[in-house]
Design a protein that fits this description.
- By secondary structure, this protein is of the alpha/beta class.
- The chain has one domain: NagB/RpiA/CoA transferase-like (Rossmann fold).
- Helices cover 24% and strands 23% of the residues.
- It is built from four helices and eleven strands.
- Strands 3-2-1-6-9-10-11 form a seven-stranded mixed β-sheet, sandwiched between helices.
- A hairpin with a 4-residue loop joins β10 and β11.
- It starts with a helix and ends with a strand.
- Its cofactor is Mg(2+).
- It is an enzyme of class 6 (ligase).
- Its EC number is 6.3.3.2.
- This is 5-formyltetrahydrofolate cyclo-ligase.
- It comes from Flavobacterium plantiphilum.
Length: 189
Amino acid sequence: MENNKKALRLKYKSLRKELSENDSETMSLAIANQLLKLPIWDKDYFHVFLPIAEHQEIDTQLILHLLSGRDKNIIISKSDFATREMIHYLLTDSTKIKKNEYNIPEPVDGIEVPSQKIDVIFVPLLAFDKQGHRVGYGKGFYDKFLSECRNETIKIGLSFFEAEESIADVHEADMQLDYCATPNTIYEF
């Protein structure tokens, strides 16, 4: 089987569909525990994606609990599909979350935070390789967002599955990860 993005997208979407709810909960918890080993807990601004339940994404509620328990500033985003831009908002007790037309839970509005201010980003992905390249859903939102951040912003992929050897069709615009956490491993790139 080819290791291009299209093939990997199909492979990992189907692997995710096979996970039971219990499996994905257990694996999400294991990933959250792995994150505790990373040298990120002195940082202030953490960007977290809210999972699309229909896509069996990693449940980031546990990560949100870890962050709020440490009094971190939590940033969540809203996607503009016309411009392929993400607008980032501070998550507060009064933040209203609503699903968009793609079932992505998003903040309705709130206090905007510039990309430059974010210290750590938890990045959703379908697959990744041993060089730190990732395969997302192919819309380019995260590559654009990551390219707007500071060089020292720490990019952490979250994956239910282990790394592929390599992804064949990596582009220059593809942003590399610094780490990727799976239920069993922390990869450092």
